[in-house]
Amino acid sequence: MLNEVNIIGHLGNDPEIRYQPSSDAIATMSIGCSERWRDKKTGEQKEKTEWIRVVVFGKLAENVGEYLKKGSLVFVKGKFRTRKWQDQSGQDRYSTEVTVGMDGIVKFLDKKPQSQSTQQQGGWGQPQQPQQQAPQNEPPMDWDGNIPFAPIGLPYPRHAIYVI
């Protein structure tokens, strides 16, 4: 049997991060997957968006919370899970969502913005070297986007590197 879901879409909101008593992180996000087609009768272009709830666990969830924002384009590989819960009136309810655990993937698909290098005039009319900007909360430009796995040897001062 195979239970595998692959999604490419944009985040509808910033991911919500919470922690279990065991201190494991859980990230919840909603991903919109759109399809477009042309109406055969009118020739008008139509679009429909499906919103899919995605739940990510562990270190991967922490990275999702740190790097993904509303509108981010992502690829997610996970599994369908249906959970049962009770509403305020005691009625049983069911929610189907995509879960991403250790065997799942969240890959950032957004292109990194290109830094605009403009030369500035120095004190004697000579062009100055562009000043290096302070590090931001973004992964390095050569990071492959697979969370939490990364190539060996890249400098990650605040991140653990996992290798399989």
Structure explained in plain terms:
The chain is mainly beta and 164 residues long. The protein has a single domain, classed as Nucleic acid-binding proteins (OB fold (Dihydrolipoamide Acetyltransferase, E2P)). A 5-stranded mixed β-barrel has the order 1-3-4-6-5. Strand 8 and strand 9 form a beta hairpin. The chain is globular and about 55 Å long.
Write the layout of secondary structure elements.
Elements lengths: L4 E7 L4 E4 L5 E14 L6 E13 L1 H9 L5 E14 L5 E9 L4 E4 L11 E2 L5 E2 L36
Parallel strand pairs: 4-6
Antiparallel strand pairs: 1-3, 1-5, 2-3, 3-4, 5-6, 5-7, 8-9
Search tags:
42% strand; 5-stranded mixed β-barrel; two-stranded antiparallel sheet; NA-bd_OB-fold; 1 helix; mainly beta; OB fold (Dihydrolipoamide Acetyltransferase, E2P); 164 residues
